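Narrative of accomplishments. A recurring question from our advisory board has been how the design workflow behaves on a single, concrete structure rather than in aggregate. To address it, we present the structure tokens for one chain from the evaluation set, followed by the sequence designed for it. No filtering or post-editing was applied between the two.
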């Protein structure tokens, strides 16, 4: 169903909120929004966000943070794109693509994310994989699967924390290797107590902030 066109102010607000959620990794407050738009009254920011929610561009997650709805990242030039969920965190015991984990949806070319597989996007934290082109803050396209081959860059859960490392299996032992110019990062030597959540397929360019 066609949505009601947004006013210029609502478009500016939606762009600000989208860029903060997708690229900065946080859900802006009403105060953040009014400062970005140059307003003084918190009520103005509250009304803008409420209207965007009512119109279906945003919704509130259970923890109160804002979530972008799929239409908020679509545009006319997104032909042959699939919408891939941006996962804010990866935790043990809950499905990775559970609604409460999803911050936004990002359009990705179907050449990078072909049909037949499930994908999610995770924001890289730190520089433990900078030698293979994964920088702090990069958006990583991950193919969801519980297994990996030697040399794959994987998203793994170790003691309930997600890490991205290079997978190797040697003589029955799993090694998750850091690939970093920063020598403080160490590799993991594991036999169990970890879960592979997926394999990193690519890093994605930033969305056009317009």
């Amino acid at each position: 169903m066609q949505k009601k066109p947004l006013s210029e102010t609502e478009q500016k607000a939606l762009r600000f909120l989208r860029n903060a959620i997708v690229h900065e990794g946080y859900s802006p407050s009403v105060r953040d929004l009014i400062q970005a738009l140059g307003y003084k009254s918190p009520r103005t920011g509250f009304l803008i966000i409420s209207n965007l929610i009512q119109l279906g561009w945003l919704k509130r997650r259970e923890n109160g943070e804002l979530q972008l709805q799929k239409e908020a990242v679509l545009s006319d030039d997104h032909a042959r794109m699939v919408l891939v969920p941006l996962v804010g965190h990866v935790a043990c015991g809950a499905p990775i693509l559970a609604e409460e984990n999803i911050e936004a949806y990002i359009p990705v070319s179907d050449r990078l994310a072909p049909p037949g597989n499930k994908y999610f996007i995770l924001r890289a934290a730190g520089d433990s994989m900078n030698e293979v082109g994964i920088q702090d803050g990069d958006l990583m396209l991950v193919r969801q699967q519980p297994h990996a081959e030697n040399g794959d860059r994987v998203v793994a859960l170790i003691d309930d924390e997600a890490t991205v490392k290079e997978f190797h299996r040697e003589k029955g032992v799993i090694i998750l290797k850091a690939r970093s110019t920063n020598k403080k990062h160490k590799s993991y030597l594991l036999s169990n107590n970890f879960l592979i959540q997926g394999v990193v397929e690519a890093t994605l360019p930033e969305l056009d902030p317009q």
